[in-house]
Amino acid sequence: MARNFPLERYRNIGIIAHIDAGKTTTTERILFYTGKTYRIGSVDDGTTVTDWMAQERERGITIVSAAVSAEWKGYQINVIDTPGHIDFTAEVQRSLRVLDGGVVVFDAVQGVEPQSETVWRQADRYGVPRICFVNKMDRVGASYDRTIESIRHRLGANPLPMQIPIGSEAGFRGAVDLLTMQAIYWEDEQGREPRFAEIPDELREEAETRRGELVEKIAENDDDLIVKYLEGETITVDELKAALRKAVIAYKASPVFCGSSLRNKGVQPVLDAVIDYLPSPVDIPPARGIRPSDDSEVECPTDDDAPLAALVFKIVTDPYVGRLAYFRVYSGKVVQGEMVYNSVKGRRERIGRLLRMYADRREDVTEVLAGDIGAVLGLKESFTGDTLCLEKSPVVLENITFPEPVISVA
Ligand code: GDP
């Protein structure tokens, strides 16, 4: 099977957050907006979120899955589950390693919490470019600006406010998009398409000031744009997006959006931002592995024709199909029915049924190509952290080194 989309249109992302910020709710909403159910439901009979959620719960499907594929505007978004407790464990390292980018969720009341600092440092450590979502804007005491300030000060990051909220707390109903200078309203809480409108008069001046600041910040990271900016030339929205994308991938900036996932407000712009600003597998440097025979370094390019290098990042026992091994392919391809070599165990195994998991269905596929995520049934000897490769060109991808334990003396 060829790819559903060209590789440039893949995003392997994780929703990362401290406990309670709304990771689960945001992930559910992302799957809702990208899922088939939404398109069918909204077009035909106006199925509500509540109905959809109830159905999902009943069927007990994949919101808890290790990786779920979704489609948004002609892009494939693979959402990889990250552990709720982010600490220095192999599990965390592994889950961050298979992502190419992250959406970091903050609670608009709490701002940066101690646990969000850990999350952020982990993402720094494993080189995960990220965008931010200030969630729970409907709560009493919510503040987008204060949360952004705490991102700047406590995390030492360069957060770029992309919006201005419209309404606050229970009255939160929309946002001004500072790039396109239009207002977006989420009015019915049923998760349907937002309504676009003119910026309300009382916010126009602030929007213009803030847009100026945003354009300056984006331009200052980009050699071409800064010249245009200083010469007072018009910079288009597409040019701004392209420059911001480069800055995000180079860890120089993180765009910040706001919303309330519980109330179905603000999630679509985050999905657009995943496409606009987070890297595809071809935008990131190739993974590096170790050749077991002599410990030399091997580069694993994102290329279907290169020798196979895939990392098993999670084993899940699925009640319907059995033991599923989730893997990410860095180089080459995993093909149904073919033999692969587990370089960590030194064993050969045959690839059984290959699956791609969606929120509402599983799809059988015949191969999974470089840069993509898949799940395989029937591997008996392979565990998380193992590398699947070719026996004639073995490579070990994961070489976990743990930091020195911090010992505190009372
Ligand atoms: P997780 O621990 O990060 O996965 O967080 P959950 O998604 O489970 O959310 C934690 C709690 O916050 C739950 O009670 C949610 O209903 C609530 N919550 C999530 N998003 C919002 C939101 O946008 N507004 C409000 N008021 N509550 C929210």
Automatic annotation (TrEMBL):
Belongs to the TRAFAC class translation factor GTPase superfamily. Classic translation factor GTPase family. EF-G/EF-2 subfamily. It comes from the Bacteria. Residues 8-282 form the Tr-type G domain. The keyword Cytoplasm applies. GO terms for cellular component: cytoplasm. One of its GO terms (molecular function) is GTPase activity. Its main location: cytoplasm. GTP binds at residues 17-24, 81-85, 135-138. Signal peptide: none annotated. It is found in: Cytoplasm. One of its GO terms (biological process) is ribosome disassembly. Catalyzes the GTP-dependent ribosomal translocation step during translation elongation. During this step, the ribosome changes from the pre-translocational (PRE) to the post-translocational (POST) state as the newly formed A-site-bound peptidyl-tRNA and P-site-bound deacylated tRNA move to the P and E sites, respectively. Catalyzes the coordinated movement of the two tRNA molecules, the mRNA and conformational changes in the ribosome. This is Elongation factor G. Keywords: Cytoplasm, Elongation factor, GTP-binding, Nucleotide-binding, Protein biosynthesis.
